[in-house]
Design brief:
Layout (H helix, E strand, L loop, with lengths): L6 E4 L5 H12 L9 H8 L11 E5 L2 E6 L1 E8 L4 E7 L3 E2 L8 H15 L4 E5 L2 H4 L5 E2 L5 E3 L11 E5 L10 E4 L8 H8 L17
Parallel strand pairs: 9-11
Antiparallel strand pairs: 1-2, 2-3, 3-6, 4-5, 4-11, 7-10, 8-10
């Protein structure tokens, strides 16, 4: 990857369908047969928690190769406070450019912009092997618990990065995923009919089957 061979800019309305197709290609058969992420991003753009100023696309030679977005959400603190935080994603890179540094470049750029806007922390579900390289750690180390997850369950998927150092000091509580991320299988199936047909495959390493 060369820093001069891509640009990052805000998503525009004219990009919507191309971005949804990019996300579909990026996530297809990754976590389950098919995917829902392209419909999730379609729905989230109309959610009040969506942040247009943090909705990015990455371009190379005039073609979209990646995207990332952020949503406002909260931590319900154990002392009764409500702590404003961000969540992130879906973040995707086209399959042929994965593992070449583009995803990290887009992630680091978008986190920098979120910090510049004054947001204090980002929490979301991801792989520490990748996101740890951009400063994420296990949310449990910050005293933040994932909603509806039993205390003895594996929470290693739940990650956090402070954008303001110390923002979560002396805070323990429960993170809440924005409702817009929850979509029905039926709605996903209907939405997916508008895209080219692709085979849904059960593959090793998928989380959901």
């Amino acid at each position: 990857m060369n820093k001069n061979d891509y640009t990052i800019r805000l998503e525009e309305k004219k990009d919507h369908r191309a971005v949804e197709n990019l996300v579909r290609e990026s996530f297809w058969n990754v976590y389950k047969p098919g995917c829902a992420e392209h419909y999730v991003i379609h729905v989230l753009r109309d959610n009040p928690a969506f942040i247009p100023e943090l909705d990015f696309v990455m371009e190379q030679d005039g073609s979209l190769i990646g995207q990332n977005m952020f949503m406002k959400t909260i931590i319900e603190a154990d002392d009764g406070r409500v702590i404003d935080v961000l969540t992130m994603g879906p973040i995707g890179i086209i399959p042929e450019l994965k593992r070449k540094g583009y995803g990290k470049a887009l992630l680091d750029y978008s986190l920098k912009k979120a910090a510049e806007m004054g947001f204090g922390a980002v929490l979301f579900e991801g792989n520490i092997g990748f996101y740890g390289k951009s400063g994420f750690d296990y949310a449990s180390k910050f005293g933040i618990r994932y909603h509806d997850l039993p205390e003895d369950a594996d929470a290693s998927f739940f990650l956090c990065k402070e954008l303001i150092p110390g923002y979560l000091d002396e805070i323990t509580g429960v993170y809440q995923t924005p409702e817009g991320y929850y979509v029905s299988d039926e709605d996903v199936e209907d939405f997916d009919k508008g895209f080219p047909q692709k085979a849904k495959l059960k593959l090793p390493g998928q989380i959901f089957n």
